[in-house]
User: Which sequence fits this backbone?
């Protein structure tokens, strides 16, 4: 199914049918932001999570062996970052910007 404008329930159905240790899902708002919020046991301490801006990336860990067993409100946030927090240093290497409110390492 097309996830670009999918509803959160459709995204969950697709996730539950996947295989592999790691899954990457891309979508569009409002569906992807709502889906992300439903998956988490607790939201990240990030000022922009509620509006889930374009290009936002959420990394979530689930304590499951099979994606068919993923439950809503069970995911643990590993990281949440928005594009404006990514910069390049003088050598062109991507680095995380020190933005107040992110969960990124070194951002406090």
Assistant:
């Amino acid at each position: 199914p097309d996830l670009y404008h999918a509803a959160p329930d459709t995204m969950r159905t697709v996730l539950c049918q996947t295989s592999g240790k790691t899954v990457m899902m891309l979508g569009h708002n409002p569906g992807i932001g709502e889906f992300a919020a439903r998956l988490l046991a607790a939201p990240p301490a990030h000022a922009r999570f509620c509006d889930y801006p374009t290009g936002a990336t959420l990394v979530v860990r689930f304590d499951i062996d099979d994606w068919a067993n993923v439950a809503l409100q069970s995911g643990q946030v590993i990281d949440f970052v928005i594009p404006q927090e990514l910069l390049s240093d003088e050598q062109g290497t991507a680095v995380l910007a020190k933005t107040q409110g992110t969960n990124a390492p070194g951002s406090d």
The chain is about 15% helix and 15% strand. Strands lie at 57-61, 76-81, 86-88, 94-96.
